[in-house]
Design a protein that fits this description.
With 278 residues, the chain is of the alpha/beta class. It folds into 2 domains: 65 residues, no CATH class; 186 residues, Leucine Aminopeptidase, subunit E, domain 1 (3-Layer(aba) Sandwich). Helices cover 47% and strands 13% of the residues. It contains 9 helices and 7 strands. A 7-stranded mixed sheet has the order 1-2-7-6-3-5-4, sandwiched between helices. It is globular and about 60 Å long.
Length: 278
């Protein structure tokens, strides 16, 4: 996939973004037209013929694109493409998920498929998404399928804030092309070495902050990913224990009626949550 990385410096230098909308000839023509209009010296760049490689190219270009406005015609094409992709993946609603305890659910799968009130994004402190082409983190996936509008929205939000997002807090944004209503972004603690009480306090704060901002915005259901357990290296077992404990304590204390989905991707996390919730 060398061409993905070769294109990365190209987009950074010329500041344009081109989209493959679907696997068809007119979409490839759209890419050529947009590219040649800006920098005709790159007219010999080859668009992949393989459908999966075309999708990877699209995702890569979305991932590396810096925040910046795009014309409405382009966004309409992008939105149509993402809408089609969401339909192909299949949208999962709360009615499709088994309730394991009152108001508590476990679901294993791609969080971007969930048509619920809000999904939680395990963000980094910059809050504008993952810029590594086709990286498999949840931040990358959410920004990819939400569309470039999410990065632009987050960038404006962070420019207004004037500083990086502190660990343990939360912000809410529209979901744009995702099937959920909102995305709630939180920065989890990074564990380097031994797990400490401060790490645990910050993870608890992530869950509390997400629940609080969801209730403030009258969100009826929220899907939590396994915050900090990926590249942030929080131990999975302790993270699951704190997640369940914090959600239950919050709901008991506030009498919140919000329905909570613990979204897992790995079999290990599914097993842990089932042990905790039955």
């Amino acid at each position: 996939m060398r061409w993905i990385y070769e294109l990365s410096w190209l987009w950074k230098s010329i500041g344009i973004f081109v989209l493959i909308v679907a696997i068809c000839e007119w979409c490839a023509a759209l890419i050529y037209k947009g590219l040649l209009k800006e920098r005709p010296e790159y007219e010999n760049i080859q668009i992949p013929v393989d459908a999966n490689e075309q999708k990877m190219l699209l995702r890569s270009l979305m991932n590396i694109r810096m925040p910046g406005e795009m014309d409405d015609a382009f966004l309409q094409i992008q939105d149509a493409y993402l809408s089609e992709e969401n339909e192909k993946k299949g949208i999962v609603t709360l009615a499709d998920i088994r309730e394991v305890q009152p108001d508590l659910f476990i679901w294993k799968g791609d969080i971007t498929r969930l048509g619920v009130g809000a999904i939680v994004n395990a963000a980094n402190s910059g809050m504008t998404g993952c810029y590594q082409p086709c990286h498999n983190c949840i931040d990358n996936c959410i920004h990819t399928y939400a569309g470039i509008q999410l990065r632009n929205y987050c960038n404006k939000m962070m420019m207004k804030q004037g500083q990086e997002e502190p660990t343990g807090q939360a912000k809410i944004t529209p979901a744009f092309n995702l099937p959920c209503d909102y995305v709630i972004h939180t920065v989890g603690p990074i564990v380097q070495g031994t797990l400490t009480k401060e790490h645990e306090r910050l993870l608890v704060s992530c869950y509390e902050s997400c629940l609080r901002i969801a209730d403030e915005n009258e969100v009826k259901s929220i899907a939590f990913c396994c915050i900090s357990t990926g590249v942030f290296m929080f131990p999975n077992k302790r993270a699951a224990e704190l997640a369940v404990q914090t959600v239950k304590q919050y709901k008991e204390k506030t009498k919140s009626k919000i329905k909570v989905i613990f979204n897992v991707f790995k079999e290990e996390d599914e097993r842990l949550y089932k042990q905790l919730l039955g």
